[in-house]
Amino acid sequence: MKTIAALQTLVTAVPLDIEPTPAELDAIDREMPLIRAEVELLDAQIMTIDRPANELDTRRVRRARNRVLAARRDLTNRTGTAMSGGAA
After folding, report:
1. How far apart are CA 23 and CA 31, in angstroms?
2. Per-residue model confidence (pLDDT) at position 20
C-alpha cells in the first residue's frame, strides 16, 4: 500500500524573508512623529478612564489631539510635496 503523502507535491510555500525593506523602514521613519503623537493621545485618554476628567486632564487630552492633527497635517504636506516632485 502506497502512502498518499508521498504522491502529493509540497503544499507549503518557500519560507519568506519577512524583514522590512529599506523603503518600508523609510516610510516608518516618516510616520514616526504621528505615531508618537497618537501614543501620547492614547496615554492621555487612558489616564482618564478610571476617574472623572478634571480640567488638567481635559487640557492634556485636547493638547494631545492637537498634536495628532498637526502631525497628520505635516505628514500629509510632506507626502504631497514628495509625490508632486516639487514641480510648481
Report:
1. 12
2. 87
- What is the grid cell recorded at 88? 510648481
Q: How far apart are CA 67 and CA 36, in angstroms?
A: 9
- pLDDT tens digits, residue range 20-29? 899 999 999 9
What is the rounded CA–CA span in Å between residue 14 and residue 7? 19
Task: Provide the b/e sequence for 55-84 (b: ≥16 CB within 10 Å).
Answer: eeeeebbeebeebbeebeeebeeeeeeeee
- 55-84 helix and 22-47 helix, angle to the nearest 10 degrees: 160
